[in-house]
């Protein structure tokens, strides 16, 4: 076998290894029910949950509480299946949090509440922001 | 309303779009026509239209800047990204704060690079500029903002759109179409940092410069000059490698210094989108150098150079199309350009790939395989490693794209990017970095073509031994016991020692050739710096009082944070640490002012001086107003050891847009480590704790008395005729007492007021925040020339801090600068080479 052939084989093997490991280490998008089931079965892997902030009838966001240290907070989130869940976050509120259309929390259950290690937001396009400061 | 400037800007945009097409066409003709006089004519046409294009791009930039700097808030761009308080340098950064402006910045660099190419390259001008102009046409289309009639398709998003057109449904515009807001939304205070001024232009210059090697490569394939494109492309590739690398470094340093991400690199998709093309760019530089020296790796160079540019386009798509929406902490708004971005990406990918496939068989390559004992073999392995390193980052970063593709074919995928990005990527990248480190040490000892085994052994023995000794020292002294980190340390030390040896042997004979050695010394330093700072950063602000800061906080928080009361020293990291109080930052002058030395006003950005002071060379007299950054509070913290004193000013910023309180660290740098300190909990202005019971005492003028154990003097009592917020008539009397208090850190002044208005007594106390002291003028006794002073005290001000020790992180920054210097030396060498050949008529 020529050296170049060995090289090609090694590169292909490495590439496949990378793809397989990516698939293995990748997180998943789940609902709070599934996340809770994972936690009770002892699976501590961090997962993604997509949902919205809880709002009252008039569309005001409710359930946001500032943490005691002022640089953390918790909020109520409703996932795509409609399950409501308290989520705590050990960092300050991210930019545009209350304006977000959709929230993605990455983390896992800790007892009865979900602890997010990261929060991602899907914000409406800026042209839809129809408030002008007069 | 200033319509003219916007119309002018729009005209420039359209001009730049059309002239880009005309340029491309003219240069295309110049390449393809056969007669010489026609060729000259088309060349002339191309050059003129590109100049018009460049002027138009400059025109867009100038008009946009006129709109921003004159605060024409009728324009959406000015309203959304700037306000009246921003100083000039942040107004400049407003320019690229929005997506449209960053496209414009990119176009601007392309236009500049295009002009340089026209002036330096006669032979390659036509084909290279054809590609350049095509790219410019695509970029100009992104800011076109034109709706095609009939199809109702909008092309691009214009920076010159009026606010009322951007916000059609805002009620105010229905009532008042001519309404112009008084002030804009401003630049997010977190971004008000000098990095915001210099980082984006550097990064975009890096982006823009990758177009040059790509254009040369495509031109080479097009003209069948398969070998000749490498020489003019190489200096540009090195330039690009240096600038893009510098841009990445700046981003990392900004994150470390201001954004309080804790680290300098988070493997966020946005960071990865720049990192991957850079790795491939470095790989392409290596194969191009190989080709120049040994005629091998030409095909690899072509593939890699094309891959770099395609990856730049792909990152643009990733970060601007909104596809990362669920995957990145950086929120990107979709301007509806996804389709256009995809066409841009596919257009150049397909052209480049199709052309290379078409010409593949004709590209010269060597039949003979490179020997294992040759430099080209090991460089090639290095390039492969760098490519795989990029591939490993690219695949997971693209997970949202894979999901979209699956969705496109009707499937559904719930795959998400790895939750612990830092852990996931570091695991792989560490081992790639080890290979890169070892290769960049070993590779330097091989000669081109072939080296004798015995010779190699002789050359390698000394550096390997020195590296082993140094390595053992670092492992022992640094107490490094984790296997991957031990291996990484060895790789770093080895490449460092090996390249220092190479450097010292060529610096005397031919310093111009030392670029490679210098760059690889940088790599060695970077690896060691990463190893220490990533593996051995530790919390030093351990709570050693045995008391909880608050039972409301988590166990970790109570353990890793230190509660400091004002003027009460603690010990930390072998230093005495003392909190001295809250400070404000003047907007237009340096230094920090004590909050206790000024009174606040209704405007949070304006304060009034109480006592004469001199801060950082600027003198302030009582009653002066100082403009400050009201949203920022700094916490002065002093570190002392023996005679050494150092002051830290970590910051907390009230930033409603970012959801409340944001903290930024301050960093105490020593040679061996950074002490990275930030506040982790602060007092709220509203809850200053409870005041003690009022204590009254009678004093005479200039008499000393004790206030909360501080020596105080009643210095004067004067009648005043104006009190803020109170209307005084002739009948009314207002008196101001001036009390001086000697604190641990200098004197403070309190100015309580005593007012008789409408025959009723009113008292306005004054507070010295740093001392937790409130002073009231209770009563005046003219018969005995005495005054009754009321004193309240409260718990002293406090702050909770967290401090981390980041050992040897300076090696990382220093190593990166060394790497850049290496690029610079190499680039100079290649430019000289290019000039020499150009003088001979070979471009």
The topology string of helices and strands of chain A comes to HEHEEEEEE
Shape of chain B: globular
Count of individual helical segments of chain B:
22
How much helix, percentage-wise, in residues of chain A?
A: 10-25%
Low-pLDDT sequence parts of chain A? 125-130
Any key phrases for this structure?
heterodimer, A: 134 residues, OB fold (Dihydrolipoamide Acetyltransferase, E2P), five-stranded mixed beta barrel, B: 843 residues, alpha+beta, six-stranded antiparallel beta sheet, 22 helices, globular
Describe the protein.
The complex is a heterodimer of chains A (134) and B (843). Chain A is of the alpha+beta class and 134 residues long. Chain A has one domain (28-128): OB fold (Dihydrolipoamide Acetyltransferase, E2P) (Beta Barrel). Chain A is 24% helix and 34% strand. Chain A contains two helices and seven strands, in the order αβαββββββ. Chain A has helices spanning 3-25, 32-40; strands at residues 27-30, 47-53, 65-66, 73-79, 84-89, 102-110, 113-122. Among the domains of chain B are: 230-438; 555-686 and 800-806, no CATH class; 695-794, no CATH class. Helices cover 49% and strands 19% of the residues of chain B. Chain B is built from 22 helices and 30 strands. In chain B, strands 6, 7, 8, 14, 15, 16 and 17 form a seven-stranded antiparallel sheet that branches. In chain B, strand 28 (773-781) and strand 29 form a beta hairpin. In chain B, helix 1 packs antiparallel against helix 2 and helix 15 runs antiparallel to helix 17 (421-442). Chain B is globular. Chain B starts with a helix and ends with a helix. The chains are: A alpha+beta (134), B alpha+beta (843). At the A-B interface, helix 1, strand 1, strand 2, strand 6 and strand 7 of A face helix 15, strand 3, strand 17 and strand 19 of B. Strand 1 (27-30) of chain A pairs antiparallel with strand 3 of chain B, so a sheet runs across the interface.
